[in-house]
Amino acid sequence: MASKNNETHIMRIMKDIREFYREDSHQMYAVAEEDDLTRVHALLIGPEKTPYENGFFYFVLKFPKDYPLKPPSVKLMTTGAGRVRFNPNLYACGKVCLSILGTWSGPAWTACNTLFTTLLSIQSLMNEKPYHNEPGYEETKIGGKGGKFKVFESLGGRNVGDAVRNYNDIIGHETLRVAVIDMLTEGGADARNMPPALRNVMISTFKQNYHYFEDTIRERQSMDGQPMTDPFRDHQRPPNFQYKDLLAKLLKLKAHYQIGDVRPSGAALSSPGAASVLTNGCVASASTAAAAASTAGGPSSTPELIDLTVDSPVRRPADDSPVDELMEPYLKKKKKAVEMGESAPREPKANEPNWDEVINMMNDEEGELDEYEEDTDSDSDTGSHSSDQHMADPQP
Question: For residue 26, what is the DSSP state?
Fold first, then answer.
């Protein structure tokens, strides 16, 4: 009997994780559970210039046994203990409405989708105007090519520019309240089950971006006490903006994590950067500036830059501080994972069919392929028969 780690879906998940290392995507992290690779925890950092900017959105993915023919189930954990709907597609109960997940109409899942493309699709929901994610509230371009965008509701024909701004104000407030302050507060419900490796990334990123959070909250103090006018009538939110309270809580976090008043220099330090994978407790990030080096409640340290354009497993500090030895296991693991993933074309093995010839014949005459199969059938040791070469299209 094949071991559990040799099952087809497990092998595909491992392949997805290896490929995730090689992607150069922005602000995405993931860690698979050590004793169950079918459960993957992911942390998405809210994209810049959106109401979700620098927020910490924690997801749990569960991959089925028929993956990749069927999609994983995904649940958003950053919900204010089930009270905050962050998007028309991100429900307070944790449901993620996305067509490739089979939870909404539209393009269906295909076996070509991966862990990376799934997380990227979810991150795309966190855009500059999430109001328009609601069906019937989409932006419509008028005036042909080069025309301007004009926004109308599907019913009533009224301009909803104010509704877009009001909704952005609410999501921006809730991002700071729930996706930042609550996520970083010890004992918070949403982050209770977050793996330690992901939590270290979150804390490190919070430290790097702390001054952005404080500046933003201070700039919005004039909104304190004003009513939240939610166009979707979500009554589980606070009735009013609470920026004075948020500032007090943020300053407590600043003291708890021992964050100094000196601001880091250099734009490269404002966010972690590229896609990351963390497995078996190792932090894996293409630009995680001190993600593993910073520990919960530890002293603030000078942010560091990681150069992964070279093979040397050495971290590049921004100053003369010692090289972070905690990053060396990740760099070695990353290099090993890529090598095991055969990222470069491998040499044909002995007695292996010439697959280019097989593919050419499949695109040519069926009779020739049948003749080829009869020839290869006589050699029982070539391993040329593989039922997993033929995959049925997944059902929507």
Answer: B
Measured CA angle at 319 (ends 26, 207), to 5 deg? 50
Contacts made by residues 300-303, CB under 8 angstroms, sequence distance 24+:
300/207, 300/257, 300/258, 300/259, 300/260, 302/264, 303/208, 303/264, 303/269
CA dihedral defined by 22, 44, 192, 324, rounded to 10 degrees? 50
DSSP-assigned beta bridge partners for residue 387 = none
Q: Which of 93, 97, 112, 282 is catalytic?
A: 97
Task: Answer yes or no: are the C-beta atoms of 106 and 97 closer than 8 Å.
Answer: no
10-residue block means of pLDDT along the chain (396 residues)?
65 89 75 90 95 98 96 97 95 96 92 95 95 78 47 49 91 98 94 88 88 98 94 85 98 94 61 48 38 37 34 38 34 54 48 51 43 42 38 38
**Model pLDDT for residues 194-210, shown as the tens digit of each residue:** 988 888 888 888 988 99
**Over the Cα atoms of the chain, what is R_g?**
25
Q: Using CB atoms within 10 Å of the CB of residue 16, give its burial: 0 to 12 exposed, 13 to 18 middle, 19+ buried.
A: buried
d(CA 164, CA 231): 8
Exposure on the CB side of residue 172, measured as CA atoms within 13 A: 21
80 and 174 Cβ atoms separated by less than 8 Å: yes
Is 112 among the catalytic positions? no
For the chain, domains (ranges, CATH) are 4-336 (3.10.110.10), 355-389 (no CATH)
Helix (H) or strand (E) holding 59: strand 56-62
Entry pTM:
0.69
276-279 and 28-33 strand pairing: parallel
Separation between Cα atoms, residue 382 and residue 354, nearest integer Å: 11
